[in-house]
## 1
Amino acid sequence: MADEIQTGLGRTGRLFACDYEGVRADVVILGKALGGGVYPVSAVIASREILGVFKPGEHGSTFGGNPLACATARAALRVIVDEHLVENSAKMGEYFQERLAEIPSRHVKEVRGKGLLIGMELYPAAGGARRFCEALQKRALLCKETHDHVLRFAPPLSSTRPRLTGPSPSFKRC
């Protein structure tokens, strides 16, 4: 089984994160991107043979069969394909990681990621990631601290290169 709730549908620059390992999972669990950021929806995908083990009434879910959720998911999938968002995630993720790695800061230990799921690890002496997240939010850049010392960036799959008119954000001032 592959849990692709956060990583699936292009977030990592491939349709599924497990594609990087050449894995074809028997069961894939999807969510988040499946709703296009508009409506909560999740799905389990597998072959008829595997899903056929469930008989009517043996399995259910809170939002199972919701017509609005299903229509939203279908529309989100069309946008992902028609707008080449998986490919864009790979291209923009590489660009974003390169730019982050260029930041001259004694606080940055490592920049890593796949596609537009990027982590910037800070040295413990930086005093935790939260203050950096708050400083970047004031500059209209959203990220989340994870494990106290990692900034997680997950920009939209439709991201484009910025048209910079001023200096880029600096970690020196944090």
## 2
Amino acid sequence: MIATALTEMFDLLHPIVLAPMGSVSGGELAAAVSNAGALGLVGGGYGDHGWLRTELDRVRDRTQRPWGIGLITWSIDQDTIDIALAYSPAAFMLSFGDPRPYAPSIKAAGCKLIIQVQDVEDARLAKHAGADIIVAQGSEAGGHGCSRATLPLVPAVVDAVAPIPVLAAGGIADGRGLAAALMLGADGVLMGTRFCASVEAMCKEASKQRLIASRANDTARTRVFDIVRGLSWPSEYTGRAIRNSFFERWEHREGDLTVALVMEREKYRAAVRAGDYDTAVIWAGEAVDLIDRVESAGTLVEQISADAESQLRGAADLIASPSR
């Protein structure tokens, strides 16, 4: 078993946290990850109150292990925070925006505060805001993020915020990635794309199969899916998704898309309803290369952790004995 500050904080068996992906990480998936001995986070996304209550009821009913919730900071208000806190999550993750307005109420509720950042400056702000854990997210990640790569970002954040535990995120989908993150000084990983291709993920089966068929070069960072959905993401954040016909048509033509928005938005919504992924978005990170099947979340947690432990034990063999 791998023991870190993360596992000790939540009494976990594995140093793995489910990324709180909107429309993917529902209560069923979060509970399955927690039941396997990792930390499941419900993806509260933009803070729809009805959806939150449904999924938080579900996770609370399906696990006795620690679980949490994650929200997009720039899109929520205090009412949304209060609704989530009423369910007594063990952890609360804030991403993409200034966490300071909401940190006091989260901390006052006795909830561990996780803050995701994309650069060292925001990591220092997260430390001052009172983060119990900081996630260093590299640009390889699926969904929204910035431009720093995971490999150099993680140790830089570790050094900047010590002794606060750091999780690595972005481009990690197996035990090798977990082992590498630990060697960079992280206390665990936040994993998203791999769990999209899990039995319990909320996304449609067609999207899971498309993930399996895709490769890293099929993904790219873009704004076109946010434009068509009418979401005003701050300019510094783009989203990594699988390229499709909609992407190819509108990438580098964002101005034209804005002009055609009324017609394109209705067609896009129809595609989402129909599960037409030549138009609808599938957020995915560069780690899609490592995904070859749909597995249960519990199996993934146990396999990734066991593989990481094997990698760490095997690394000792790389150290040559001094010659006599």
## 3
Amino acid sequence: MSEAPGPPAVHANKAGAPDLPPLPFSVAFDTRDEAEILSRWQTVLRSNRWSDGDQTREFEAVWGHYCGLEAVAFDNWSGGAMAVFDFIGVAGKTVLSPSNTFLATPRTAQKSGANVIFYDCNRSDLCGSADDFIARAERHRPKAAWIVHVGGHIAFDIERIADYCKGAGIWLIEDCAHAHGALWNGRRAGSFGDAGIYSFYPTKTISTGEGGMVVSQNPDLLKYVRSYRDYGRGSRYQIEGLNHRIHEFTAALGIVQTRRLDDIVQWKNNYAETVLDAIHPNRLRLPEGMVSGFYKYVVFDPVTPSTGKVYEEPCHQIMKTGDILPNTEWVSKNHWCVPIYYPRS
């Protein structure tokens, strides 16, 4: 693919402060890819197979190669999460979830019949705190747990949490909805726990309109979720799944978008380093060896313009559990997001 566009120029205003050109929200689709997408859609139109065909298989292969894990495509993130929880069997069991996340994270566990226990985050990365995770796991003995990679980077405590879960026999599921392109010492999000689930909603670093992907190293889990998304057909209907297949038009978008992902991540990292970092010293800082996909550029000072917050209200407050999670409550009030959108070329 051709070289991604460079970051916009920065000029000083009369007060001497940097004057940033606007970065209005844009789905991260590169117009240089229109011809290939239209060609693929034409192929689908003429194929007489508009669902679960060659484009889906190729999308799974491309995404799996990118993550270094086998991948199974879904019509949305929630379908993938429900399939994973059905495989684990969390009904009547406890699932840990960070409160600093979107409501879909705990809700999929609840809708799978689990009792959700929330745990606190770190102020440094907005992601789950290993100290609080371990304390609550010791108390509640969960069968499974969520870890959420918030804002585009990998959770700083992921290795400690993953090691604890392996020793304690807890299934660890990674919410990778924000983590497209994230990398830490050569490892992608989704490779630390038992499964990772990606989202391709329009606001995500790359999008297919709607869509999701389960990645895992567990062949039994992968076989199960593949059957679950197709009514349990692959198990002679012993798996009580529903229809969570993606259609071929979505999959074609996913193939082209995934091939553009490195360009998008490179552009965002370049823009962050050359434009935003000098302006925002009180920002979220990454550890050595980590690359963020910069779904969000998080700072700890009020800024204008801002795209608001990653999450406006913690899940434990939305769901009125009565928990007191001081770091989560601090984060919800003390972070803001600077616009960082890949431009259409």
